[in-house]
């Protein structure tokens, strides 16, 4: 089962300890074959909406800074519970804030 784990912006700036702990976590998930992809996201983004034949393209940012998704990890795990456990470990490293985990369907 694949899950997309997204992290929203935090109010605190990262410190050196966070980078070290996150590097260990990413290395462990990579070695276990769980981590498929990871990365940070630029804050603006592009919104595309369609209505009939009309497609509108708008440059961001769109949400409050604290609601913006700033990073992601795509993982492949055996269960939803395993994805939640990875999410718990991530939140313990980065501290206060919010993450969203969604199952990815398809090939």
UniProtKB/TrEMBL annotation:
<comment type="similarity">
    <text>Belongs to the YciI family.</text>
</comment>
<dbReference type="InterPro" id="IPR005545">
    <property type="entry name" value="YCII"/>
</dbReference>
<feature type="domain" description="YCII-related">
    <location>
        <begin position="1"/>
        <end position="89"/>
    </location>
</feature>
<protein>
    <submittedName>
        <fullName>YciI family protein</fullName>
    </submittedName>
</protein>
<dbReference type="Pfam" id="PF03795">
    <property type="entry name" value="YCII"/>
</dbReference>
<dbReference type="InterPro" id="IPR011008">
    <property type="entry name" value="Dimeric_a/b-barrel"/>
</dbReference>
